[in-house]
Design goal:
The chain has a six-stranded mixed β-sheet, sandwiched between helices. It is of the alpha+beta class and 203 residues long. Helix 7 runs antiparallel to helix 8.
Length: 203
């Protein structure tokens, strides 16, 4: 946190706040409510990616297909990305290879990357101590860059019970988010994921 030039007094105050812990709790409860099992888990416009389709090329293909459909529908109906997403939720229609159920996500308090009215919403449930989650950091960033302006990435916290420091890392990342440094801080957390401590969060 200090290396990123954050306000350290505010960071440490936020780290002690109950509200910070409650934001992580809310994501965990949401994950349980939608039957999330393990991490990482990705949702493209509200639909969970099926099987093990977490390889970058497969993910890129799914997002491209979703964007093609979204662009065509939004243009024909003269609506923006958020309106399209809401309509998609209400209709329960989608043709790309994802789960049938469409979920709606409250993104208030969540770290986001990309415009709120993007045609594609990519919601990622992740755990800072998870090696598989770490393997998605660069691919998701590359997709966000490739589809810049058309896709919004939403980070949801899903620390597994077996990862004893993942929840405290999530708390720290939310403090970084309060100061506009979530994404670079989250990358740092993944890199040092084997040695979490309060001192590491602050340095």
């Amino acid at each position: 946190a200090r290396k990123l030039g954050m306000d350290m007094e505010k960071f440490e105050q936020d780290l002690r706040k109950q509200e910070t812990k409650e934001l992580v709790d809310a994501d965990v409860i949401l994950g349980g409510a939608i039957s999330a099992r393990g991490s990482p888990i990705l949702y493209v416009n509200g639909r969970k990616m099926a099987g093990n389709s977490l390889i970058k090329d497969q993910l890129e293909g799914v997002v491209k297909k979703a964007l093609e459909e979204a662009t065509a529908i939004a243009a024909s109906r003269n609506i923006n990305g958020r309106q399209y997403y809401n309509e998609l939720i209400s209709r329960g229609e989608f043709s790309i290879p994802l789960d049938k159920t469409i979920y709606s996500f409250d993104v208030s308090g969540s770290a986001t990357l990309g415009p709120d009215d993007a045609l594609i919403s990519l919601v990622l449930f992740s755990d800072f101590q998870c090696d598989y989650c770490f393997s998605l950091v660069r691919p998701v960033q590359e997709l966000a860059d490739f589809f810049k302006g058309n896709m919004q990435v939403v980070f949801k916290h899903y620390p597994l019970r077996s990862h004893t420091h993942a929840r405290s890392a999530s708390n720290a990342s939310l403090c970084a988010n309060e100061q506009g440094h979530f994404w670079e801080y989250h990358e740092h957390l993944f890199v040092v994921r084997s040695g979490f401590s309060k001192e590491l969060y602050i340095e």
